[in-house]
Fold this sequence. Notes:
The chain is mostly beta strands. The chain has a domain at about 30-135. It is built from no helices and 14 strands. The chain has strands at about 35, 40-45, 45-50, 50-55, 60, 65-70, 75-80, 80-90, 90-95, 95-105, 110, 115-120, 125-130, 130-135. The termini are far apart.
Amino acid sequence: MALFGNQSKDNNTSSTPVPVQETTTHSHAHSNIMNVIGKGTTVTGDIDTSGDIRIDGKLEGNLFCKAKVILGQHAVLEGNLSALNAELSGEVIGKVEVSELLTLRNSSTIHGDINTGKLVIEAGAKFNGSCKMGAVSKEVSLNGSDSLKKPIQATV
């Protein structure tokens, strides 16, 4: 296995491989694959994943995740987030839709509306926007469809 030189796509030895996950038929099962966007990395464009994802860098685009999203303390997401579960420690500039549990850690900052089944907010977390919880969250779409394109109407 060579570290430098020509490599075929079948013999990728880069230091941060991007795992590819096949679609599963499990409705709430988490995969054992963790996708990672590392600190110092900026990704531009939408991401749609069936597996868990951790972001410690910056994503300029929408994120659709059928599992769990972990946003690190210094991470920035400039776009909408749709996920089954999410634990946010960084900054989100966009709508956040989580069908099960959304956890806002003490270092998190959210600039946008939240729609979730359950919400945990640690002391020190900041969010500027409206919030819907409970039965409304059943409308959250996890397939990247029109749910994030429609404005969320909320009264707080």
